[in-house]
Amino acid sequence: MIELKTLEIEAFRFIDISLFLPRWTCRMIVSTKAVLVDESWDLDVLEEKKIPVFQVHKPGKTGLLDGEITAMTSTAARAGIYIGMSGKEALLKVMHEKTEKG
Is the separation of the CB atoms in 56 and 70 below 8 Å? Predict the structure, then answer.
């Protein structure tokens, strides 16, 4: 089963996606400018997308937002994301920066 929800943080909208598989659940929060994922996603595959992708190792929507970034793509690192930031902080940093630049 796939669950899609709209998530609003500050003035920004995201899509909260949960994939319920037989043995585990994969979660991600996405926008057109950034992606926040749980540990079930392979960052090497997501590296090719040329969009900032960062990963936390804590399940659930609240866990993704409040959990600490443990890994990221090189695009995310260039956007100023670093290990230890919260998922929410990283999403907002990318969104604010992209909004200011256009």
Answer: yes
